[in-house]
Structures are given as structure tokens and as C-alpha cells.
Specification:
Number of strands: 36
Radius of gyration: 26 Å
Structural class: mainly beta
Mean pLDDT: 88
Low-confidence stretches: 1-44
Shape: globular
Distance between the termini: 33 Å
Number of helices: 5
Helix content: under 10%
Strand content: over 45%
């Protein structure tokens, strides 16, 4: 194993250096037991406070709707097993789908819809060109917690029609200077499977000043499936055979007579890039005669001629001013800038070909790589006033958001325009009221979205007929409403009911680049209409001394929604703009058996339906009924996650978990009388169960040592979303992976 000595050298050297530091060792990762014992009391635990969705610190027990708070402990336990950025969401959030195990988050969604991902409140993607890369934007070691709002949120506006996933960076809580060193070595015991990480976080707090600095580097080797076969290179970007570097700096200080004012600024610079040591070898699905011996994609050593490495390059600056005593309330002013670039692996699809360009590939075809570039600037102002008009329990939260988002997409190797420069400017005022009347909290509000989409004139590629498309400006205006109530039936039991509307754009770049008709104008492209979602939900939360249970049922509808399909001519994704209806139910259970044992269960069921066809532009027929099931690219099959954690000593614990993706068979059909056309759809996916194991043990004044085993039983399986036929997308999941972690805090 060529990389083992070097990787272990880093691991052991870090342990030796850390052990020599004569400082007080922090205790092992805290358990939740003490906090959970307070759940039945009137005191509000800080772990139950969030800022996402309301822009102000608020107890989740006062917000109608299903909310998940992924704790620092949940994040760190997942990191012991895998560095995949979305794996912790798949394991802890019921409505979040199966993790893709790739740089791309294709097939990942929240309750069947695309969620708005934020990092400290800054959007990590562009609504103009959703490239399914916005889940890999920082080192998870700098993340303190993740707040997940299920369902649309009017307070965050555009892009939040499917919910919000806000990653919150770490923050010093005690005076003094602290360092945290993490080293990790991972392997599948193949000669090219070794990977390693080294990361260091420094936090300092003195009086009214605090600062956090985090740096890390991750070097990943290749991955293998349960049969010991090297995994294929993901056509939207792979994590294996990649390296990632991260820098994060955040500083702030409090001032004012009582420290009620705060100014804070942060900078994040993250880049993950493929190393280009392997090239894809396509497998094949079973088909009589054509593929009698089915096999998933794999890889072989070598570089694909003059192609470039795929990458995610995300940078952002974020400044926040807070005044907790402004006109009797709290004022928050936030300005941010984010620059994001994504390059994708090479492809030789039909839509990349052009007879006027000499072939650059060994097979006589043109290979090209797309690049998405996005730049956004935003200003957000909000004011929260409790006890409005001196009425106890009446709170006003109001504000206004301004954002300017620009994006385009090019074919990098041949320097061709694929998606023209686009600019979206939005101004959105909003107001939310909540009123606590004894055990009942009623809340509601409005948000006015007023945006303009500007698209330059452009000419499509040769494959689309080199059609000239006249640019123009589209206006998007809508008023979104939300209303809900929470009833605290007993100190332990609460129930909620909620209605909310969300607004989003339909991945604008895809319909723009697919224009293939003469005389087209941007204003005439029907698929550029917005996605407006309404969500109804009902549920309850019960927190006892040893047991907590949360459950909810929801329905999510869009009259002109969006779902993904694969174009058989180009093997690329296309949008289906048609009505969509998604519904489901989910539950989470935590049982603290005693001081040493905790058992957890997460279950989710999601199903969606759309139309086989939309209404005809010439009025010859209406849209079809909701008779086409939404498949694995849009809705996840039922999932069940079970976890058992044993704290076998004050210094050590073990965790065993299982994640089950259930089998699913979907059928749908419809008939259009106008032109005597029948439609049919069916999809079959096979489920599987994976087991993960992790163990920690802390040694005084030395550090904490951990073992993580992903896919403990070395299960061979095909990723659910990859079981649906598509372009070169037949990928197996990762087999058994061992990770050895050393962590030292001082």
C-alpha cells in the first residue's frame, strides 16, 4: 500500500506533537443526557434555539412546522465514518434523501424538492443555474450545527420553496484560547484507496472580542465497492481521487453600554479538485443480447488526453452588524459577497459536437467540460420587536432583502457559450407576526418577491441548430403567505399546524441552452415561469425524561412545478414543467434507556406525482392529470435509520447504526384523446441496508482516538438514484471503509 506509510506518518506525528503540549485536555464529546433531562421543564434549552427561518433567535417549540437541528456531536460522529458533506443529513434528517457519495448532490433533495443551502445565511448555489454542486462548499469540521427547515420558508425568499438547510459555523463560547487538531487516515486496504485529513481550528475569546480560524486539507484516494471493484468516476464530479483545501476566518466584537451591539465578519475559501489520475470505464445494465453480464461503472489509471480537473471553488465574505437595543428591538444588518465556480468532468455527448470544430478525442469526437460561474451580492436588513405595543407575547419580525445574482455556463475546452450571462435582481420586503396566548403561539406573515431576470441575446450550439435567441427581461412578482400555530398541550407535548408558500426559479439555464426553434425570445420561453409551492403540514413533538417522539404529515403542491428527466437524444437532464404534488409522513424517536444507552430511529415516506404532459401553447389540450409518479431523481424511497449508542465509560463510547433504503415499484399511465397518444411510466428500485460503526476513547493529556467503519458488512449495492437509467450513471456504492481519527483539544 504505497500511501500508507506517508499517511500514517502524518497521523502519528500529529499525535506525538499534540501529546507533548502540556495543557488541560478537554473532555470527550459531550453527551446529550443532561440537556435531555431538561426537556420536560419550563426552561428553554439553548440547543432548541435556532436562527434559520426567522432570522432571530427563537425556540423551535414556538415555530410551526417540522424542524431538525443537527448537533455538533451528530456531525462529528458522522465524520468518524465518512467525510461526505451530506451524509450527516441523510442519517439524521427524515426527509433528506440518500447521499450521492460524490462531489455532485444529484438526486439529493429535501422532501422531494430542492432546498436552499446556506452557510451562515449566505446562499451556496444559484437559482439561475442549479448545478447540483452546492452541498460541497466547506470543511465540515468548521460547522457547529445544521438547522433544517422542512417545507417552504417565506422569510428566506427565492430558492427556499423546498426548505432551508443552514450550516452554522463554530463560535467561541468561553474566554481563552483553544486549539483543536484533527488527523484522519482512511483506507479500504487497496494500493490506491488511502486518504488522509489534517485540520486545525483555533478559537480565541477575551472580553468582547472573539475570533475563529480553521484550516484543513483532505486528500482522498480511490474507492471500491463491496465486490472489491474500483468505483467509476462520477460524471458530475467525484470525491475519490480528489484533494480539498479550506480556510475559514471569523472575527467579531461586542460594544455598547451593555455589549448589546456586535460587528462580525467572516471569510471562507474552499476548493475541492480532482487529481485526474483515473478515467471512467463504463459498465452496463442488463439488457438481452446487448448486456448479458451487467456490471457497474469502474475506473482505470490514466488521464483523458488534454482534459482538465473538475473542481468546486467557493469563496465568500460575510459581514453582520447586530444591535439588540434598537427602538426596543433587535436590528440585524447583513451584507455578503459570494463567488462560486464549478467545473464538470469531460463528456462527448451529442450536444457537445460541432462539425466546425476539429475533434479532440481519441474516438474522433469532441470532448468538452462545462463550467458554471456564479457571483452574488446581497444585503439583508431585519428588525425584531418583542412585546409590540406593550402587548405581552406579541412579536414583530420585519425586514427587506436585496440580492444580485449573476451566472453563466461555458464549454471550457472549446471556449463556447452554452448558457448566456444571466442576472437576477430581487428586492423583497417581508413581515412576520407571532402572538403567544397562553399555551398557544400563532404566527403568520407575508413576503413580497419583486425580481427581474435579465438575459443577454445569444446563439445556441450547433446541436440545437445555432438558433438566435433574443434576450430580454422577465419580471417575477409574487406575494407569499404563511400561517401556523403551535399548541403547548403539556410541558412535554406540543402540536402544530402550518401553511406556507415558497418561491423559486426553475433552473433557468437548462431551458435557455435547449432552445431549438427559430424566432425564439427569452420572454417567450414558457419554462422560465417561476415555481410557486404551497405546503400544508400537521405534526406533534413530545419530550419526556427518557423518550422523545416527533412526527408530521405534509402535502406540497405546485401548479407549475419542476421535475427531472433524461433526454434520450443527449443523455442530459431536461426539465419537465408540469403540476406536481408531493406528500409524505416522517417520524423521529430518541430513547435514553439509561445514562449509558441511547437508541434512535428515523423514518420517512415520500411520494410524488406529476403530469405526463403540460398544456399546449396553442390551446389544443390542457395539462394531463397527476398520473405520472415522480421517481428516484425527485423523491426518495422509504428510509429507516436505526442507531444505538453505548457510553461504556466516562471516556469512551461506541455507536452502531443501520440505514435502510427500501425497495419501490412505481407505475403510471395516461391517455390524451386529442392525438390518440398513450403514456406509460414505471420504475423499479431495489433497496438495501448498510451498517456503520464508530468508537471513541479519550486518553488524558494525550487526546481522543477513534475508529470508524463505513458499510461494516461490505455490502454490494447500487445507489438508488443510479438504478434509474441515465447517461453513464450506473454506479455502485462504496464498500467497507476504515477510518482512524486522532483529535486533540488544548
Amino acid at each position: 500500500m504505497k500511501q500508507v506509510p506517508a499517511a500514517f506518518g502524518v497521523f502519528l506525528l500529529a499525535a506525538a506533537v499534540s501529546a507533548s503540549v502540556q495543557a488541560q485536555q478537554n473532555t470527550p464529546l459531550p453527551e446529550d443526557k443532561a440537556a435531555e433531562q431538561e426537556r420536560g421543564k419550563d426552561a428553554v434549552n439553548l440547543d432548541r434555539m435556532i436562527v434559520t427561518g426567522t432570522r432571530a433567535l427563537k425556540s423551535v417549540d414556538k415555530i410551526p412546522g417540522a424542524i431538525n437541528v443537527v448537533s455538533k456531536e451528530d456531525i462529528q460522529r458522522t465524520l468518524l465514518v465518512t467525510e461526505d458533506a451530506t451524509a450527516v443529513l441523510a442519517r439524521t434528517v427524515p426527509g433528506y434523501s440518500e447521499a450521492s457519495q460524490a462531489m455532485s448532490n444529484t438526486g439529493e433533495n429535501l422532501r422531494g424538492r430542492i432546498a436552499l443551502r446556506l452557510f451562515d445565511g449566505v446562499p451556496q448555489g444559484s437559482p439561475l443555474r442549479e448545478g447540483t454542486r452546492n452541498a460541497t462548499f466547506t470543511d465540515m469540521g468548521i460547522v457547529e450545527r445544521i438547522e433544517v427547515i422542512n417545507g417552504p420558508s417565506a422569510s428566506e425568499g427565492i430558492g427556499a420553496a423546498g426548505g432551508i438547510i443552514n450550516y452554522i459555523s463554530t463560535q467561541p463560547s468561553e474566554d481563552g484560547t483553544k486549539f483543536r487538531l484533527v488527523t484522519r487516515y482512511s483506507t479500504q486496504f487497496k494500493d490506491d484507496s488511502a486518504g488522509w485529513k489534517i485540520g486545525a481550528n483555533m478559537s480565541h475569546k477575551k472580553d468582547d472580542f472573539d475570533v475563529v480560524v480553521g484550516v484543513s486539507r483532505i486528500d482522498r484516494g480511490m474507492s471500491y465497492d463491496g465486490n472489491g471493484v474500483r468505483l467509476g468516476m462520477n460524471t458530475s464530479g467525484s470525491l475519490h481521487d480528489s484533494e480539498a483545501n479550506n480556510l475559514f476566518v471569523k472575527a467579531g466584537f461586542n460594544f455598547g453600554e451593555a455589549g448589546e451591539k456586535r460587528l462580525q465578519a467572516s471569510y471562507s475559501d474552499f476548493k475541492i479538485e480532482g487529481k485526474g489520475n483515473y478515467r471512467q470505464v463504463d459498465g452496463c445494465r442488463y439488457e438481452p443480447v446487448w448486456c448479458e453480464d451487467p456490471r457497474p461503472n469502474t475506473s482505470e489509471r490514466g488521464h483523458l488526453f488534454e482534459t482538465k480537473a473538475e473542481f468546486n471553488d467557493f469563496k465568500q465574505f460575510n459581514a453582520v452588524y447586530t444591535d439588540a437595543d434598537f427602538l426596543g428591538g433587535t436590528l440585524v444588518l447583513n451584507g455578503y459577497w459570494a463567488d462560486q465556480a464549478m467545473r464538470y468532468p469531460p463528456e462527448d455527448g451529442n450536444d457537445r459536437q460541432d462539425p466546425d470544430i476539429p475533434p479532440n478525442g481519441p474516438n474522433g469526437r469532441i470532448w468538452d467540460q462545462s463550467e458554471i460561474r456564479s457571483d452574488k451580492r446581497g444585503l439583508r436588513a431585519s428588525w425584531t420587536r418583542p412585546d409590540l405595543f406593550n402587548i405581552d407575547g406579541l412579536e414583530l419580525h420585519t425586514g427587506v432583502d436585496w440580492v444580485k445574482d449573476t451566472a453563466d455556463q461555458r464549454l471550457a475546452l472549446t471556449d463556447r457559450l452554452w448558457v448566456p450571462p444571466m442576472e437576477y435582481i430581487s428586492l423583497a420586503p417581508y413581515a412576520q407576526l407571532s402572538y403567544e396566548i397562553g399555551p398557544v403561539t400563532i404566527s403568520g406573515g407575508l413576503r413580497r418577491e419583486d425580481g427581474e431576470l435579465n438575459v443577454d441575446s445569444y446563439t445556441t450550439t450547433w446541436y440545437r441548430g445555432r438558433k438566435f435567441v433574443e434576450g430580454g427581461t422577465l419580471s417575477y412578482t409574487d406575494t407569499m403567505k404563511n400561517l401556523g400555530a403551535v399548541w403547548q398541550i403539556t410541558p412535554q407535548l406540543s402540536a402544530f399546524v402550518a401553511y406556507g408558500e415558497g418561491f423559486g426559479l426553475p433552473n433557468v439555464g437548462i431551458p435557455l441552452r435547449n432552445v431549438d426553434t427559430d424566432g425564439q425570445t427569452v420572454k417567450g420561453i414558457v419554462d422560465l415561469q417561476p415555481i410557486v409551492v404551497d405546503n400544508k403540514e400537521i405534526g406533534f413533538n413530545w419530550y419526556g425524561k427518557h423518550l422523545s417522539v416527533s412526527a408530521s404529515y405534509y402535502e406540497s403542491n405546485a401548479d407549475f412545478g419542476s421535475s427531472l428527466a433524461v433526454d434520450w437524444r443527449t443523455n442530459d437532464f431536461v426539465l419537465n414543467r408540469a403540476p406536481t404534488r408531493i406528500k409524505g409522513y416522517e417520524a423521529t424517536v430518541d430513547w435514553y434507556v439509561n445514562d449509558d444507552w441511547k437508541l434512535s430511529a428515523v423514518y420517512a415516506h415520500t411520494e410524488g406525482w406529476t403530469s405526463f404532459w403540460t398544456s399546449d401553447l396553442e390551446g389544443r389540450w390542457d395539462a394531463g392529470g397527476l398520473n405520472k409518479p415522480m421517481g428516484a431523481l425527485d423523491t426518495n424511497p422509504d428510509k429507516l435509520v436505526l442507531t444505538a449508542r453505548w457510553k461504556f465509560s466516562p471516556k469512551g463510547d461506541m455507536t452502531l447504526s443501520s440505514a435502510t433504503q427500501m425497495s419501490r415499484d412505481l407505475y403510471g399511465s395516461d391517455y390524451r384523446e386529442y392525438n390518440d397518444t398513450s403514456f406509460k411510466y414505471e420504475e423499479h428500485t431495489t433497496g438495501y441496508t448498510l451498517f456503520d460503526f464508530s468508537a471513541n476513547y479519550a486518553v488524558d493529556k494525550v487526546g481522543r482516538f477513534s475508529l470508524g467503519v463505513e458499510n461494516l458488512l461490505d455490502k454490494q449495492y447500487i445507489l438508488t438514484w443510479s438504478q434509474v437509467p441515465g447517461f453513464r450513471n450506473y454506479w455502485a456504492g462504496r464498500g467497507r471503509m476504515y477510518s482512524f481519527t486522532y483529535e486533540r483539544s488544548f
